[in-house]
Amino acid sequence: MSHSPVLQIEELTGGYSLGHPVLHDINFEVMPGEMVGLIGLNGAGKSTTMKHILGLMTPHRGGVAVRGKTRDEDPEAYQSSLAFVPESPMLYEELTVREHMEFAARAYGVGTEDYAQREERLLKLFRMEEKADSLSIHLSKGMKQKVMIMSAFVARPPLYIIDEPFLGLDPLGIRSLLDFMMEMKSSGASILLSSHILSTIENYCDRFIVLHRGAVIAQGSLSEIARQAGMPGAALEDIFYSLVKEGGE
Ligand SMILES: Nc1ncnc2c1ncn2[C@@H]1O[C@H](COP(=O)(O)OP(=O)(O)OP(=O)(O)O)[C@@H](O)[C@H]1O
Q1: How far apart are the CA of 133 and the centre of ligand 1, in A?
Q2: What is this structure's pTM?
Q3: Which residue CA neighbors atom 29 of ligand 1 most closely?
């Protein structure tokens, strides 16, 4: 397995208007086969960080590289190396579940045979077989979220950017997603995952990035950030609470 980072964020400062950065000098990496949790309070800057990674925002300073290249250096390779699951589903009302997955597969150049296998597997895993040919407008909230997830996973890129994916999913859906992320991870894929459900991600992520007011205030494995917080052996939720309290509201 390669030891170069799949995702590298260096001295990233950025925001929605030039004089008012929301992110301040962010530095972190995600290595191949790693699942990294991006955690922070509402407004800490998690989605803004993800928008920079996706190339939807231009940094004021610093930058983002995926597999060693910035988006400007090789836009096509950059974009096809990552898949994104947004916080709220964004679907085409007039497309079916299957058509969304086919659309994603085509965009990422997935071959017909690979696609057929992946589609069958994902529809079964997320218990969406009966809805495969339903228009997305006729789906429940959780089902719409599942379409976003399945469309990202059909592509099998080296890097997944996943923004708060558990909201709206039923307990079986959450379990299926966690199991599938672990499977992708063991096949070498990297995952940057943001979530407020700390007790759920605590045992799944290899490392955590704690964002507070647009800055990284701690990062590392559970035991490393526990040490940084002076709370060896503590649960992620308690460590997080202590770190953000110290960081100031
Ligand atoms: N479109 C926007 N225009 C201007 N400011 C924005 C915009 N979106 C977010 N912000 C601001 O950027 C900061 C970081 O927001 P961001 O959405 O990145 O937080 P977050 O950590 O993802 O929060 P949450 O947990 O609520 O999703 C906040 O102060 C927010 O008000």
Answers
A1: 35
A2: 0.94
A3: 43
